[in-house]
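User: I'm putting together a small comparison set for a docking exercise, and I want a reference complex before I start. The sequence is below, and the ligand is pantoate. Could you produce the 3D structure with the ligand included, as structure tokens?
Assistant: Of course. I'll restate your input first, then give the structure tokens for the complex.
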Amino acid sequence: MPLLRDPSSLRKWRQQLQGSLAFVPTMGHLHAGHLALFRLAQARAEQVLVSIYVNPLQFGPGEDFDSYPRSLDEDLHKLGEAGCTAVFVPTDQDLYPNGPLAQTQVEPPARLSDILCGVQRPGHFRGVATIVLKLLHLVAPDMLVLGEKDYQQYRIVQQMLVDLNLSTQLLCGPTQREPDGLAMSSRNTRLSPEQRAIAPALAAELRQLCRLPANNAAESSAEASAERLRQAGFALDYLELRDSETLQPLSHTQPGARWFAAARLGPVRLIDNMVIP
Ligand code: PAF
């Protein structure tokens, strides 16, 4: 499995590649959720490239860029075992030679990016859209695979592909969960044993909200769930019902609408979302 460490090796590798290519961008510290995205990519394309890069541009001041878990050797081992075609591990110098802030950036539409996670993390989705576009130009894949757990990210990238006339096909891999329901995330390893025991309550509340009958008032149900989560020890950033396509708020439950939540346990910020069946 070639380890491509800079854009020029990636380009050379790409030029000689035969067959369809699916691309799974990651920030590393790979878990079963990433491997499920990888398997989706493998099922849909002849070749799969995974990138591992912790993108400084999508972290705000005081966020967990420095403490974000990194485990390159184990990641490469997992990808090798899984049968990955190649891995791209660029450096900051390759992607942001003049520093991340001193370059052209991609500004997603405010109606998608200034809401939900964009409220607590201003500029986060500009950083995501910018790195994803840069990677797409470098990798030139037929397909891009993103996870449903980061649904707002998925929608913003989907919109970017349309708005910037990119022909890459976007695939969305379903959220992978621990047996107790907690959505898999690289950040979960930073939870203390006590926080880890509390964490599944977030998914449990979302599941319960998804079971409400259609036309139920969203705000009062969300407030009751939010209160239970606060009692359990979460600091809640948001718990909201929104349209899955426009991401605009909905006042009443309806099939296809989506509950979104973000909450902190100590230094760890967890996000999750579930669609009403
Ligand atoms: O979802 C992630 O891990 C990141 O936001 C991504 C898409 C790899 C861009 O840095």
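Strands lie at 3-4, 21-26, 47-52, 86-88, 143-147, 169-173, 235-242, 258-265, 268-275. The domain at 186-275 is CATH 3.30.1300.10 (Pantoate--beta-alanine Ligase; Chain: A,domain 2).
User: Thanks, that's exactly what I needed.
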